[in-house]
Design brief:
3 helices
Length: 523
């Protein structure tokens, strides 16, 4: 197995195409591209979308046809229909996601099942019997050939337990998922199956063994085109995989929302943004200098430069900015400063006013995140859930539906709003050299307002014996003779191992079970 630490590459050069403003998402394959606009309409140069198509929530480009998912759960398809790939089943409703492939169309329904239609050769539309609990789908939008000239294309399904199922002509996920899963995002491409793990690393089926890629930012999702993979960060970063070269650079203030590739052309949807990053509350201010450049042949009259509404922790310094920029690369610079005084995401709109009645004002989003470690469970709820009074934010709530209560996510360092399955924070078990069952998990010092207890029993039905406990994030203390607790690490979290007080080598206790219970401590 090969593992690489991939350096963050240069940002991609972004070219704004006339007629494509207000784009929310783009999908591409070979020489086809389709863009979803923020108003729910669709743009495609060829083939043109059906007249009157509105209310669209997702688009997908296949080898020679395009698909659109409407907000009412129905599907529309257009383009080549040589294999029935545009013949949407008449009774198809309740669709939550779509994926167009090579002469095939796939739809994920709200009940977790998958429906496919189009070319049935080579098992391309043969959804495995009984496949359910699917949370995402991805079809390879390009075909290539085995040595026997049989075309290879396939579809992936990600299940809620983090496993991947494939059909068509690919068995590649089997080569890595048993050892490296569970996964939370998938992408099918010409060269490899790619999957995003809970820890943010990317696993790719790669000859002769799986390739693990680690990026220097938190990866939100992955997407693939004909042959290339893209990783998108939570703050709008974009990393293009090392499958390709010759990507020009751009240093402008942008945040990526969607990326796709057709042949050798990369499409990127971006937001204009100035990100001042994650800063500790009370730390020194951070500033960013911005430049306005007049590349035209006439003088440029600069309007007012301001922060709209309540700028909060942001300020600007426009001292020395001239009222008029001369033509041909006249330059003006000003500074935006973020002084973090409060926790959470801070946003403001920076506007450069236009004095031309035919032109809109130029707006930039300014963002920064103030960070303070949560001092209590209620504090954590407000930070992650935004509303401590919301019913979903109570200790037993599970707003992301991954089976872990909020109080358990708090204790183990989970993300209550993250995507399912989110099981990587759960305790692991093992046996030590003397046959004692062990439970391993992370402890976060200072997590006030909770009591955590490790228990052991001879059967899942109990009775359970308290083995070790921790209050308010303090180190675990042993509660029964024969048990032991060890810790390692000195950063934000500690790695805890709690060993049972009885050994399975004892004939009276041939089977042992351990569990971790967490509850909110009464104030």
């Amino acid at each position: 197995m090969e593992e690489r630490n991939i350096p963050f590459g240069d940002p991609i050069h972004y070219k704004l195409l006339t007629g494509f403003r207000g784009v929310a998402e783009i999908s591409a394959s070979h020489n086809l591209a389709v863009a979803l606009k923020t108003d729910g309409t669709v743009v495609s140069l060829y083939p043109l979308p059906p007249a009157g198509l509105t209310g669209v929530s997702q688009v997908s480009a296949g080898y020679d046809h395009l698909m659109a998912l409407k907000s009412d759960g129905t599907v529309v398809s257009w383009g080549s229909n040589a294999y029935g790939q545009c013949d949407v089943p008449a009774d198809l409703t309740g669709v939550t996601a779509i994926s167009a492939g090579v002469h095939t169309s796939a739809a994920l329904k709200s009940d977790g099942t998958v429906v496919m239609w189009g070319q049935a050769a080579y098992g391309w539309t043969a959804v495995p019997p009984g496949l359910d609990h699917v949370v995402a789908i991805s079809s390879c939008p390009s075909d290539f050939f085995y040595p026997n000239n049989a075309p290879l294309t396939y579809t992936l399904a990600l299940r809620s337990d983090g496993t991947i199922v494939s059909w068509g002509a690919s068995d590649r996920p089997d080569s890595f998922q048993a050892a490296l899963g569970p996964f939370k995002s998938i992408a099918a491409s010409y060269y490899s199956v790619s999957a995003l793990r809970e820890d943010g690393t990317i696993v790719r089926s790669w000859y002769p063994s799986p390739l693990i890629q680690k990026l220097p930012f938190h990866v939100r999702s992955i997407s693939a085109g004909v042959s290339r993979l893209f990783a998108l960060g939570t703050m709008g970063q974009l990393y293009p995989s090392d499958d390709f070269v010759n990507v020009p650079t751009h240093a402008g203030p942008v945040a990526v929302r969607s990326a796709a590739e057709a042949d050798d052309f990369v499409y990127v949807v971006v937001d204009s943004r100035v990100d001042l990053g994650l800063r500790d509350v009370g730390s020194a201010p951070v500033s960013r200098q911005l430049t306005i450049r007049n590349t035209g042949i006439l003088p440029l009259n600069l309007g007012e430069i301001s922060l709209l509404g309540n700028p909060g922790d942001f300020s600007i310094d426009t001292a020395g900015v001239p009222a008029v920029l001369p033509p041909r690369n006249g330059v003006a610079t000003f500074t935006v400063t973020y002084t973090p005084t409060s926790r959470g995401l801070q946003t403001a709109t920076l506007r450069v006013r236009s004095d031309d009645a035919d032109q809109n004002n130029f707006d930039l989003m300014v963002t920064g995140i103030g960070y303070l470690p949560p001092a209590s469970f209620a504090d954590w709820q407000e930070l992650y859930l935004q509303d401590a009074a919301n019913s979903a934010s109570c200790p037993a709530g599970d707003p992301n539906g991954n089976g872990l209560t909020n109080v358990m996510e708090y204790a183990l360092g989970g993300d209550p709003m993250g995507s399912a399955p989110g099981l990587s924070v759960l305790p692991n078990y093992s046996f030590n050299a003397t046959g004692h069952l062990q439970l391993q998990f992370d402890r976060y010092p200072g997590r006030a307002g909770i009591t955590a207890v490790v228990q052991a029993a001879d059967s899942p039905g109990g009775p359970w014996t308290d083995v070790a406990s921790s209050v308010n994030g303090a180190p675990y203390g042993v509660l029964v003779s024969g048990a032991s607790v060890t810790e390692s690490g000195s950063d934000e979290s500690r790695q805890v191992t709690v060993s049972d007080f009885l050994s399975v080598t004892d004939p009276a206790h041939p089977a042992r079970f351990m569990r971790l219970q967490v509850q909110e401590t009464a104030p």
